[in-house]
User: Which sequence fits this backbone?
């Protein structure tokens, strides 16, 4: 309830703000996400805003703080307010298929960034989440020598995260000597504190050297939480890898602790591709591909040029 | 239509009702009067099916009826309308009238149209012009009273028992109310009117029955149904008022009020209370005496006039100011306004003057031991019966709860003590004790103002008795001038009685 | 007598049973000293926010803005760090922001008579907007002084720092509620506001102070959480709200009259904390964890009811 009111009030404020902007500018674009508190999502939206400013679009940004019901409502609002395009960030449009269908029926171009392919959207720009998960899983499993015990932090409600989990499942099948000894479904918001508390408990449930060799974090923030727990417990011999290239995670990698790697999606690149394609659409051109991929980048001590003893 | 024959009801050793017989005929308005405690409310409860009589019979249309619950009485067509019976504020009159009744349906949907028609038909007959489609929260108190009436009549009510129906209504609306009541009667509905407002009973009822000490003592009708005859039949208490000379007539003035006005008082009030004197404010509920006490206590805004306390200007903005300068107050309705039911006795006693129980004067930390001994002293002084100082206030009997509220002020010398209905809802023994306490407080040299709706209490306590009616003082009696009949006549009079 | 004792101490017994159950299920992990330390640290922020909720519930009101105040204070503090300010500047400013927000709640409730449920929900919404705006929606973690982090991390004399915070804050709150004139006032207002007003208590002042203190405590909890995690997200305090009130409600079952007490609240915090921690150690599925948590809260309150009616 409170979350709903939070998003509602923000939406009202932001819509009001954008209404003023719309007087001056050309195309009207609504950017809507339930996950603005996640660093990566925020980064994509910032990059998209920069592109939009260049192109003279009037954009408004709405965050529903993890609330999918409010998210659907805001998409409906954007549809009725007559936006020229709706950009959904970090969310699978199939979760709000009705609303997306209505937007399409109203002749509004719906584009997803970091989302999923959908019949009612014109484009999804993403780093292939499966590739992200695959890249990180391979790196993590190699770094523990192809065998050992891992802990999984996940959040299957997010479609991109789900793809990464599938990549881990496949990697585990291919590496029978790697075992998943514990897992935790991360609570959002509050993901870092929640992951830290969970890791505290998991460490105690799995004492002894070698009981846990690695932590697989579906995105960086749970990894950061797990890292805090490992530090506090003084446990060694555990490595962590995450996904997203979160700046705090990059700092941790530089510090030579348990955190050894993250996979960076080309977030800015994804937003740029989405803006370019949308521009083509506004100019009357057609968007050729239903899904486009931005390149991924593995960040490790090596890639950062850090040497640890 | 409705007949009561030989109804008797006992509570413990006391008779609440003794061999009460009366009949209510079709299409008449019967008045029922009597002092507090004469048995009116017990009688109403028995008619309503909420209590069973120990002996006697209720007959409806000549046939004996046994009410096992209020539901049975309801089914027989009896409707008791209490003065503040709840309505759903957000519902309009039509929806309120259909509460608890099966809704007419039209293809499975609630048929609002036929609901409205059914109610409008009755409303047209008894209260034309009553808005039916407006939430009752937006109606006047009088209109809401009409809605209650409408609700009772519309759902096949044949016998209405109205309990103090005009107590909460502005005096100027009483006539409109009785017009509506007359139209209701003319449709063949029988009405029993229970009221303290004897003039209303005298002018509107065709017959009136007087209860006294649980018995029917008189029935007046026609020309002999007057305010005077009712007052005589209601009688007074047998308690001998001890004559005492307090010497208060020459004592210094504690409280002096000049032309005090509040939103609830219809005329400016001027009044004096001397040290050692008990001034009783007597009047019916809603006559303005409680509002005056609240204004003196700083709990209600003052619109004009001036007060002086022992010679100094006194203008409290809130009760805190009043406490500080030595005024004490025991509110009416202790459950709502006085008691902390879920907290212990010591807590209840020490709260208003908490800072006087500090262990170290500079630190706001109450010292339990000091509090406890102060409580024990005060409890002794008001002769409160209790199990332990740590027991919860709600576990005390009504009389002891009232003594607990009194005990708050027992350890200090209050210049002025304000008491609102100090003996309401407590047993006879406790009443006597409380009255003794009040006299003792005055004997200590405090000025005391007692507001009461109990005439006998006003007579027993007051060195002077100030009678209120409709938000104004109508007359002030000295003890020598006061008699039960004179007090009732003043409180009931339509026109202000010249002093 | 036995029913009475069970009635009075039923909640405590339930807590001990939970602990014994988990100790049997996972003797090495759950009952270890390390886990007790973990529990204490995990409970600290919730305990402080729940104490804020306890104060406000003592006067018979609700404060739904506590989670948002916690987020806002943490965001303000970290933004100030980012601008190069010292701990002694950033922390007091953040705490004052919480106090001020709480005072606004108090004024809305006591002066303007807005129901606290509505007033604090609305103000909380505004606070969350401010936290969002000030943080720019970004996770903040740069330029955090080690001195600040040590407020919520590590141990002194072998006891986690956060344990001292719990003892300090809850101890003071409990003392104020039970031993001071101000505490008496709060219990009187919660017991019967009308009677408290007519008894001459300064109700408006007391209510404003209570809400202000609650806001300040929420801010403190937000700062300690930030110190423990080393980073701040503008939504980080929100998950504290519902568990805080759950803890207060569980705590009321430990009091004979069903009123909130600091000790009861601590028990409530401990029960919810132990439940989540224990179930994670034992490896209970996440969805079952939530179902069980809800079931246990209802069971605790129901048992209390049954126990009371039996007396």
Assistant:
């Amino acid at each position: 309830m409170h979350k709903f009111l939070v998003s509602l009030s923000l939406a009202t404020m932001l819509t009001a703000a954008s209404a003023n902007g719309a007087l001056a500018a050309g195309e009207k674009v609504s950017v809507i996400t339930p996950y603005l508190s996640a660093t990566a999502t925020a980064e994509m939206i910032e990059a998209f805003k920069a592109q939009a400013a260049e192109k003279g679009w009037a954009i408004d940004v709405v965050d529903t703080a993890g609330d999918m019901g409010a998210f659907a409502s805001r998409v409906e609002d954007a549809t009725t307010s007559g936006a020229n395009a709706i950009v959904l960030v970090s969310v699978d449009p199939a979760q709000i298929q009705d609303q997306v269908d209505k937007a399409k029926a109203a002749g509004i171009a719906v584009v997803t960034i970091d989302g999923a392919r959908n019949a009612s959207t014109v484009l999804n720009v993403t780093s292939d989440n499966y590739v992200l998960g695959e890249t990180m899983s391979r790196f993590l499993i190699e770094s523990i020598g192809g065998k050992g015990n891992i802990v999984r932090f996940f959040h299957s409600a997010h479609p991109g995260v789900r793809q990464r989990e599938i990549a881990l499942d496949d990697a585990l099948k291919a590496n029978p000597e790697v075992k998943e000894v514990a897992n935790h479904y991360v609570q959002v918001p509050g993901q870092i504190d929640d992951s830290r508390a969970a890791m505290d408990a998991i460490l105690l449930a799995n004492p002894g050297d070698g009981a846990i060799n690695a932590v697989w974090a579906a995105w960086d923030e749970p990894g950061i939480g797990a890292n805090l727990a490992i530090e506090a417990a003084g446990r060694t011999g555990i490595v962590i890898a995450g996904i997203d290239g979160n700046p705090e995670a990059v700092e941790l990698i530089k510090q030579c602790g348990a955190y050894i790697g993250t996979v960076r999606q080309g977030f800015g690149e994804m937003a740029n591709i989405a803006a370019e394609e949308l521009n083509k659409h506004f100019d009357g051109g057609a968007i050729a591909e239903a899904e486009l991929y931005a390149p991924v980048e593995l960040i490790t001590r090596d890639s950062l040029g850090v040497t640890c003893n | 239509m409705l007949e009561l024959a030989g109804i008797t009801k006992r509570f413990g050793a006391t008779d609440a009702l003794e061999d009460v017989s009366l009949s209510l005929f079709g299409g008449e308005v019967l008045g029922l009067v009597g002092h507090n405690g004469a048995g009116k409310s017990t009688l109403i409860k028995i008619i309503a099916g909420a209590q069973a009589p120990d002996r006697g019979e209720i007959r409806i249309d000549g046939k004996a009826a046994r009410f096992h619950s209020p539901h049975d009485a309801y089914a027989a067509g009896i409707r008791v309308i209490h003065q503040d019976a709840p309505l759903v504020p957000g519902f309009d009159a039509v929806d309120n009238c259909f509460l608890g009744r099966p809704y007419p349906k039209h293809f499975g949907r609630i048929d609002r149209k036929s609901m409205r028609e059914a109610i409008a038909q009755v409303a047209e007959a008894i209260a034309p012009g009553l808005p039916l489609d407006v939430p009752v929260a937006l109606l006047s108190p009088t209109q809401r009273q009409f809605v209650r009436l409408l609700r009772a009549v519309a759902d096949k009510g044949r016998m209405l028992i109205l309990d103090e129906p005009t107590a909460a209504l502005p005096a100027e609306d009483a006539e409109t109310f009785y017009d509506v009541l007359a139209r209701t009667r003319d449709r063949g509905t029988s009405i029993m009117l229970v009221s303290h407002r004897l003039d209303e009973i005298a002018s509107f009822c065709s017959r009136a029955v007087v209860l006294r000490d649980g018995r029917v003592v008189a029935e007046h009708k026609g020309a002999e149904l007057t305010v005077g005859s009712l007052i005589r039949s209601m009688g007074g208490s047998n308690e001998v008022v001890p004559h005492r000379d307090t010497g208060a007539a020459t004592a210094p003035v504690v409280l002096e009020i000049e032309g005090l006005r509040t939103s609830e008082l219809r005329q400016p009030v001027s009044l004096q209370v001397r040290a050692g004197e008990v001034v009783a404010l007597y009047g019916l509920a809603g006559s303005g005496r409680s509002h005056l006490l609240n204004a003196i206590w700083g709990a209600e805004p003052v619109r004009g006039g001036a007060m002086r306390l022992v010679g100094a200007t006194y203008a409290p903005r809130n009760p805190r100011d009043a406490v500080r300068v030595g005024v004490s107050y025991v509110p009416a309705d202790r459950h709502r306004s006085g008691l902390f039911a879920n907290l212990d006795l010591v807590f209840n006693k020490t709260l208003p003057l908490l800072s006087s129980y500090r262990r170290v004067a500079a630190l706001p930390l109450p010292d339990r031991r000091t509090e406890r001994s102060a409580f024990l002293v005060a409890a002794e002084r008001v002769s409160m019966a209790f199990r332990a100082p740590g027991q919860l206030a709600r576990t005390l009997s009504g009389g002891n709860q009232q003594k607990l509220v009194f005990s708050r002020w027992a350890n200090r010398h209050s210049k002025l003590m304000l008491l609102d209905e100090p003996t309401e809802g407590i047993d006879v023994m406790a009443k006597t004790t409380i009255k003794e306490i009040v006299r003792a407080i005055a004997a200590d040299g405090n000025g005391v103002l007692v507001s009461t709706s109990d005439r006998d209490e006003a007579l027993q306590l007051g060195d002077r008795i100030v009678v209120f009616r409709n938000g104004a003082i109508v007359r002030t009696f000295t003890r020598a001038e006061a008699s039960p009949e004179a007090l009732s006549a003043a409180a009931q009079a339509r026109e202000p009685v010249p002093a | 007598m036995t029913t009475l004792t069970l009635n009075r101490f039923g909640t405590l017994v339930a807590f001990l049973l939970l602990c014994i159950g988990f100790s049997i299920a996972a003797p090495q992990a759950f009952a270890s000293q390390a886990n007790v330390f973990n529990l204490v640290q995990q409970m600290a922020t919730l305990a402080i926010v729940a104490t804020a909720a306890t104060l406000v519930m003592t006067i018979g009101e609700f404060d739904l803005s506590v989670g948002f105040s916690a987020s806002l204070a943490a965001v303000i503090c970290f933004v100030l760090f980012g601008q190069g300010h010292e701990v002694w500047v950033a922390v007091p400013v953040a705490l004052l922001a919480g106090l001020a927000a709480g005072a606004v709640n108090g004024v809305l409730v006591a002066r303007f008579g807005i129901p606290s449920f509505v007033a604090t929900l609305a103000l909380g919404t505004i606070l969350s907007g401010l936290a969002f705006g000030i943080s720019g929606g970004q996770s903040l973690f740069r330029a955090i002084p080690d001195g600040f982090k040590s407020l919520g991390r590590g141990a002194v004399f072998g006891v986690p720092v956060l344990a001292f915070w719990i003892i300090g804050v809850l101890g003071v709150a409990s003392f104020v509620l039970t031993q001071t004139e101000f505490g008496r006032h709060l219990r009187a207002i919660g017991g019967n506001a009308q009677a408290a007003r007519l008894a001459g208590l300064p109700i408006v002042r007391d209510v404003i102070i209570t809400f202000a203190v609650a806001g300040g405590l929420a801010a403190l909890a937000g700062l300690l959480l930030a110190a423990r995690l080393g980073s701040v997200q503008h939504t980080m305090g929100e998950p504290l709200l519902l568990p805080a009130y759950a803890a207060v409600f569980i705590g009321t079952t430990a009091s004979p009259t069903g009123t909130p007490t600091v000790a009861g609240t601590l028990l409530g915090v401990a029960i919810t904390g132990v439940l989540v921690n224990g179930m994670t150690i034992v490896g209970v599925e996440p969805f079952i964890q939530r179902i069980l948590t809800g079931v246990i809260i209802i069971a605790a309150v129901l048992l209390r009811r049954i126990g009371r009616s039996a007396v």
